[in-house]
Amino acid sequence: MSSYSQVERLRRRVELYEELAVLENAEKYGKKARGARQKLENARAALPSTGLTLPEGVVLDVQGLCMYFGGVKAVDGLTFQVKKGEIFGLIGPNGAGKTTVFNCITQFYKPTAGTLHFENKSGQVVDLNREKVHDVILQGIVRNFQNVEVIRELSVLDNLLVAGHRQYTSNLVQQALHLPILRKEERAVRERAMKVLDFMGLTAYRDWYAFGLPYGVLKKIEIARTLMCEPQLIILDEPAAGLNDTETAELSRLIRRIREEYRCTILLVEHDMGLVMDICDTVCAISFGKLLAIGTPEQVQADKDVQAAYLGGDGEV
Amino acid sequence: MTTQKKNPVRDLMRNPLAQILLFTAVMALLQILSSAGLISSSFVYALGNTMIYAVIAIGFCLLLGYSGLASLGTAGFIGLGAYAAFYVIQEFGLPYTVAFLVTLAVSIVIGVVVGFISLRIEGIYLAILTLGLAEIIRNLLMVIKSTVKIDLSNVKLFGIQIGDREAYFLVLVTLAVLMWLLSNLINSPTGRAMLAMKNSTSAAQAMGISLMKYRLLAFVISTVFAAIGGLLYMMFVRNMTTATSTLLTLSTSLNILGAVIIGGAKSPWGTTFGVFIIYGIQSMFLSKIPFFVKNPAFITMVTGVLIILVVMFFPGGFAQIFAQFTGWVRAKLRKGAAA
Amino acid sequence: MAAAFLSTLCGTLLSVCITAMAAFAVTLIFKTSTTTNFAQGSIAALGCYVTAELFGAYGVPVFIGVIPGVIVGVLAGLFVDIVIFRNGRNVNAVGKQIITMGLVSIIFGAIPLIFGNPESIPFEPFFNPQKAGVSPNFIIPAFGGEIVVTKHSLICLAITVVVLGALFLLLKYSKWGLGVRATASNEFTAELMGINTHVITAVSWGIAGALGVLAAVMYAGGGTKISTSFMTTVQVNAFLAGILGGFSTFHGPVIGAVCIPVAASCVGFLANFPAFSGISRWNMVIVYVLMLIVILIRPQGLVGKPVAKKV
Predict the structure, then answer these.
(1) Residues of A in contact with B207 (CB under 8 A)
(2) What is the largest CA-CA distance in chain B?
(3) pLDDT at residue A1 above 60?
């Protein structure tokens, strides 16, 4: 028997040796990587089954999700499925409970009722409600925040290193003594961060302190952070809020590129309908915590309930 | 961008280990000069005393500057270390290493229990619960034994008889080692995780940082450093009358806090400088001026004013003021060179 | 035994009153300025020194001298809010907390400079039984024994009930009270709704200072030696009471303030039984541990409500 966090640790070790093998072009790391991989395979085989399954091609299954705050039913019996590799848009008028859904998936809120099943990086289906909020990232779910939460006291590069926090396997003693294992990990994670910065076009800001950078750059740093740990599912909360038209257009290209490059699923909340209709494969509209319509952008756009919710009567969106 | 010229001396000075070694060398030299009769021994004694407070303060620096948590229990933990030293070395006649391990164990246990309970609620409660704890520890220690005194004539460490000089070196080496460990931690994922947590708890959690783990870690480390400070105090000063000594009262906790704030909560060296301002200047220089001897409270008052001014206008403390000043000088020099 | 126990409980009356006042003051500041005011006790001590100086040097009786003392407390409170908090550059919650800690240092240093450092400071209760030539205690025979209550503690109980009662009524029905509650729930919104939050917080600081000094004078009148840090224990208990009762309501901390001294004296009372004879030195430790257990089970406090955080 082994636990998922052990598997994740081993997986990280394998990656570290592989990355070092490339960086230093040394065969000894290749050998170590193969040894670690063997251990990883064994640990994976020994993972206890969760007894949960998802239909083919589905990565996240939300069933009957409810979140009540006292008498307020922020999310009320919401059900939807997100397919692997798609860009899924969650839309709805203000106060519809979109961010609450995100907070439930990432376990910032413990849902009042409902199940959240997710296929993690190891292909195992887990019940997210059993995960602690800081362990959700281990399963492969990362998120950004509506009101930009960049660490202002750290440089842009360090912000990315923080996002790679769970990539480190060295313990407290190894860190306090700065043992070689930490230095190697540091090098590998730094290298990865540089790649992400390059991908996002942020290299010029590498050593800047996040404090005082323009809003658009801060939003990009937030997205860059989500790419630090091989995400399976990226959750973006209003990525286009506060951006101008040019920046929004760039953002939609960027989101597509992220999906291609990192082969992940993207779940986003957005008010900019142009962006949603442009890039989403599936759109889900909610209002007052309840599902209104789900389907392709065209289907949702044509839905009478959706039009009513947005315009308070019948009309066109 | 212009590439800066390589400056090996400056690069070396930016290496934490080199800084620590230099500091240790200077401090050791002062002791040797004093043995040679070139510096008064009271000056070196005051220096040793100040370094003990520096040990306590740099631990606090991690708690306040990196995790954004304030504790007022420092004095209580100092007391734990001091009494552990007294009981292990004096009463049971065991060696210093045992006293060290006992201090470590006791402070970790108490730190974990108090931290676990108070950090579950808002971080702001930590100060309150530790304040209460420190008061209780002080009263309890006073009831258990009002005066503790250590006789070092039979105490050896690594086969060396501990006298005044050895005790000074013990303090110095402990400070240097702890400083090294701390600066390593600060420049590692742990230090970054703590800063992330201080800036945005939600972002930290989303990135896989367990708030409880790192808050508790910072609190326990600061507790351990304070307890080691108490242990060193007993090795260096050797006696304490709990009822009259101010060491275990709230004012020590406040002074340590003041030292960290004034020096710069994110910089261990800044903190060490802050300790020098609060404790060093007083014991090395002001104690020779009659006005301050008659009114020791005046210094407490100045500390308070400094704390408030720094929090209001220079959140980075003297470390920030110093950095701004050197930046300004460098800019001036560059202008001068260009003209 | 029952009478002895009741006497013990009556013996805690004074500290219940003092802790309740301090706890209310701390809560008021916590809710309007989102900080824990560590200078509560030292501001109180400062005011008490003024009263004591007037009594010792000029013979002003304490029930009159308390007024200038309270005024000093109010001014000190106003100073903190108006001069310090409002002029700091983006000072956050921990920053404010540290400022109040710095203030403790200033007052600790200032008191000996202003008032000297005498061995003991003469003081008297509001009603001085020695001058009136009467016994300081009421003795009520009951349960085959006698219950002893000091007159001072009954006077203090009356003052506390009147003052805190008035403040609770003000909170509930006055415009200021509504402002406090609005500011406590969200300072920014309250400001947008036309509430002058500056006035609200300033008045709260003034009231907190006054309550502190009143409590200090009552405490000193009960026979406690006045010193710079003599209110520290009261303040610590007031904070603990706040946590125990829960800072989310105003009455929670006051309930906590009743619980702590009573629990301490109950533990102390056990020392009367031979099996627990050595317990008195562990008195506060036991109460503290009991409190930690309560907090472990109910982190939001005895009467508090859990708060959901918005992300």
Answers:
(1) 137, 142, 162-163, 165-166, 225
(2) 72
(3) no
CB-CB under 8 Å, C308 with A108: no
What domain range is B136 assigned to?
16-338
> Which residues in chain A touch residue C311, judged by CB atoms under 8 angstroms apart?
99, 103, 108, 145
Q: Give the pairing of strands B239-241 and B147-149.
A: antiparallel
B271-293 pLDDT tens trace: 999 998 888 887 777 777 777 77
Output the DSSP codes for B256-324.
HHHHHHHH-TT-HHHHHHHHIIIIIHHHHTGGGSHHHHH-THHHHHHHHHHHHHHHHH-TTHHHHHHHH
Contacts for C127 with CB less than 8 Å, ≥ 6 apart: C63, C151, C152, C155
**DSSP H or E segment with residue C145:** strand C145-150
- Which residue does chain A place closest to B209, by CA atoms? A134
DSSP C306: -
> Which tens digit of pLDDT belongs to each residue from B23-35?
999 999 999 898 8
State ipTM: 0.89
Is the Cβ pair B203, A149 closer than 8 Å? yes
Cβ separation C109–B70 shorter than 8 A = no
Q: Say whether residue A132 is in contact with chain B using an 8 A CB cutoff.
A: yes
Question: Which whole number is the average pLDDT over B133-158?
Answer: 83
Structure tokens at A42: 């064994």
Whether the Cβ atoms of residue C268 and residue C250 lie closer than 8 Å to each other: no
Element (H, E) at C47: helix C40-58
pLDDT exceeds 80 at position C100: yes
The pLDDT confidence band at residue B330, using thresholds 50, 70 and 90, is: confident
If one counts every other C-beta atom within 10 angstroms of the C-beta of residue A140, the result is 22
Closest chain B residue to the Cα of A134, Cα to Cα = B208
Given pLDDT bands bounded at 50, 70 and 90, which one contains residue A268?
A: very high
**What pLDDT is attached to residue B288?**
76
Q: Which among A106, A153, A168 is the nearest to B206, CB-wise?
A: A106
Inter-chain CB proximity B195 and A153 less than 8 Å: yes
Residues B301, C148: Cα–Cα separation, whole Å: 43
Q: Enumerate residues 82 to 121 of chain C having a beta carbon within 8 A of any beta carbon in chain A.
A: none
Domain containing B334 — which CATH number? 1.10.3470
CA distances from C33 to A136, B124, B126, C181 (A): 35, 13, 18, 12
Average pLDDT over residues A54-77: 90
In 3-state terms, what secondary structure has residue A59?
strand
Domain membership flag for residue B11:
no
- In A, which residues are within 8 Å of B196 by CB distance? 151, 154, 162, 165
pLDDT tens, position by position, B58-70? 999 999 999 989 8
Chain B nearest-CA distance from C134, in A, is 36
C-alpha–C-alpha distance, residues A167 and C266, integer Å = 53
Taking residue C81's Cβ as centre, other Cβ atoms within 10 Å add up to 21
> Which of C97, C108, C110 shows the shortest C-beta gap to B124?
C97
Which pLDDT score, from 0 to 100, does residue B1 have?
A: 41
> Which of A67, A170, A52 minimizes the C-alpha distance to A120?
A52
The number of distinct structural domains making up chain B is 1
What's residue B21's pLDDT? 93
